Amino acid sequence: MIERKSGIYRGRNKSSAYKDLVWTVATSSDTSLDIAGQTQSALDIMQLNLVELGSDKSKIVSAQVYIADMNTKALMDSVWCEWFGENAQNWPQRACLGVSLEGDVLIEITVTAVR
Predict the structure, then answer these.
(1) Could you report the per-residue pLDDT of 19-43, keeping only the tens digit for each?
(2) Cβ distance 109 to 41 under 8 Å?
(3) Do 41 and 107 form a contact (C-beta atoms < 8 A)?
(4) Pairing of strands 93-98, 60-67
(5) What are phi and psi of 25, to 5 degrees?
(6) Cα separation of 77 and 72, whole Å?
(7) pTM score, two decimals?
(8) Which domains are present in the chain?
């Protein structure tokens, strides 16, 4: 059975799970923040989404990071690495893409994790 957790946006769920896999997406709840602040906020929301479905950040296997300005990637990376910690064993496979995002959203993150 597929589990789905609804979010605040019409047309999509914030998280889904099937058997031992979890998928979730997060953006910052405060778009007045800079890229570092929005990254931290999105990652914190991501962790809550994962925990809600029986996982956590240490179990992320794949991530896609969409940022509005690739010139801010280094700032995003510093927050990302601090959040995951220095142990490279906990780092997921990741792709980072520069894209147009809606409004003042600077980052959107999707991940796949195991439970």
Answers:
(1) 999 999 999 999 999 999 999 999 9
(2) no
(3) no
(4) parallel
(5) -135, 150
(6) 9
(7) 0.93
(8) 3-114 (3.30.1330.40)
